Amino acid sequence: MSRIVLIVLAASLSCCAATQYTCTTKAIVNGEEVDYDLSPLQRTNGTNWQAEEKPTADDRDDYLYEMNICHDLLPSPDLMEVPPGWGMVQHIKTPNHTGDSVFPNGNAKLASWKSLQDGDLRYEFGEVTKNSFSRRGTIVFFCSDNGLGEPVFVSEYRGTIKIDGVPTAVAEYLFVWNSCAACAVGSDIRNACPDIAYQGYSGKQVVNILLLSLFVFSAACFFIGFIYKRLVQGARGIEQVPMIDLFLLCCDCRSTELEYRDLASIQTDPRSPGEANAAVFSDYDDDMVDAEER
Fold this sequence. Notes:
The protein is of the alpha+beta class and 294 residues long.
């Protein structure tokens, strides 16, 4: 009984270990073991990394790829709900496209690191299947002194290979990424590399920020203008509103402007309210009579 428990426990631990995200790996370079840590490329909020694939003679569709490193994809305007484990997707951005437009290109939980003898690093997403295709994205990293960089689409391969002896249709997507995060830990370039990737903001977040900034700026200008006209210029009533003359001119509210002017004159008239009102309406009646005679 105890052996069975141990076997089940070991199996569960190995399963959990396989689904953990990791941004660190080791590689043999010039006969020495070197550590790599690409955690600066991991994004936990904001936007995903993106790469574009423009139409070609063989494929007239326009594609946009979203991906994340060592983490699930983040919600985006084109992918509001991200299924668990998705690390890369392909969007078909061709206008008037019909049918499915979002395809998973890799499982982040099953991603693995590989290294070739020339010192490059390969981040391979786990395979996912859709429309009878086994789909997987691979990113080839190179150490470069150009900041964190960004992924660049290179090629797409579609064919049939045997997986566990069974012919399977596959789609492989290859990307290249030159980044200081892909340099060996302890190297000068890696030490100068930013520790955290710029997270960015989604399109909706940018619009909200702009609208909020515009509202705050407008409110501040209105308040400052109101205080200036009241305390410095001695304005009262509607005249305290900043740029009231421009607003009335833009609206072509001449009659409304006369009414506002009359109201302002009543508020500042030294006569009693009754006498001032009578004078205003008397002027108004005279204007109406003159208009009828003309």
